[in-house]
Design a protein that fits this description.
Blueprint lengths: L1 H21 L12 H4 L19 E2 L4 E19 L9 E7 L7 E10 L5 E9 L1 E7 L5 E7 L1 E6 L6 E2 L4 E8 L32 H7 L6 E13 L4 E11 L11 E17 L1
Antiparallel strand pairs: 1-9, 2-3, 2-4, 2-13, 3-6, 4-5, 5-8, 6-7, 8-10, 10-11, 11-12, 12-13
Length: 278
């Protein structure tokens, strides 16, 4: 009898777990998730995914401008280049942990896709929510802030494709604006366009070389590179998906510190729309 009671309790527990899992919110094309279903779940930070079985292609014709819309990039891994203790060994990328919750993806980005004379494709990013401030924690305890972005991205595919296929790779460069804006004030109320121009407690030495780097703020604009590797294409809906690898500089604290090299890896999603005359 005791065994029967234990078995009954075990099956009841399993049934409860299955019931709880079946009640998880899911979206369809007709019934999207509501705000209450998404709030505090992290789902808003996730990019849509294309079905793994989709292996079609989308032809790009000359004389027509195609739009890549709803582009979403979701980073899943973060690395920062660090010097090693061995002087004979070059600096290497160290894996870090994101301290930024639920807001690491950039989305609703759009741009033009056009066919070049050599048969390669050019993606020209135009607008969208194309930046996110992120902070990464390294194993040693250092916190590295940076602005994840693809502003002004111009990426080119391999030549001779004339279509977006599961073998298409877009590679290009983009601008990386300053992590902090010109109105930012440091702990001594120094800023680029507002605040004091030096540490008030040290007016006689404000122009000294040892303080100039802290006193003189700058809005640094760096450059990054990215590779978008398409692996899934749905020719019926125009959806594409795959993985990306991006490298860019970190924050310089308004020019007062040297930038670190940051590498991000993750997944992306987008949709190609046709019918726009060039």
């Amino acid at each position: 009898m005791r065994y029967r009671a234990l078995l009954a309790a075990f099956f009841a527990l399993c049934l409860g777990v299955l019931t709880a899992c079946s009640e998880a919110p899911s979206a369809t094309s007709d019934i999207p998730l509501t705000y209450d279903q998404i709030r505090n779940t992290g789902l808003a930070n996730s990019c849509p995914q294309v079905d793994e079985t989709r292996r079609g292609q989308i032809a790009i014709e000359d004389g027509t401008t195609y739009k890549l819309v709803d582009l979403c990039l979701e980073p899943t891994s973060f690395f920062v280049k660090q010097e090693t203790n061995n002087k004979r060994k070059e600096a290497e990328f160290v894996a870090g942990k994101s301290l930024t919750r639920y807001t690491t993806s950039i989305e609703q980005v759009s741009g033009d896709i056009s066919l070049k004379p050599d048969g390669s494709l050019l993606f020209d990013e135009k607008l969208g929510m194309d930046f996110q401030p992120i902070t990464v924690l390294l194993p040693g305890g250092d916190q590295i802030p940076f602005l994840f972005t693809i502003k002004g991205l111009k990426a080119t595919s391999q030549a001779g494709l004339n279509a977006v296929t599961p073998a298409t790779d877009f590679e290009g460069s983009f601008r990386v604006p300053s992590y902090r804006t010109s109105n930012f004030l440091d702990p001594k109320a120094r800023g680029l366009t507002t605040g004091y121009d030096n540490a008030v407690a040290l007016p006689a030495r404000a122009d000294g070389a040892d303080l100039a780097r802290e006193n003189v703020k700058a809005f640094d604009v760096g450059q990054g590179t990215i590779s978008l590797q398409v692996s899934k294409v749905d020719s019926n809906t125009g959806e594409i998906g795959g993985t990306f690898i991006s490298e860019q500089p970190s924050d310089t604290d308004m020019g007062t510190a040297a930038a670190d090299d940051v590498r991000l890896q993750g997944v992306f999603y987008g949709r190609i729309e046709t019918g726009f005359d060039a």
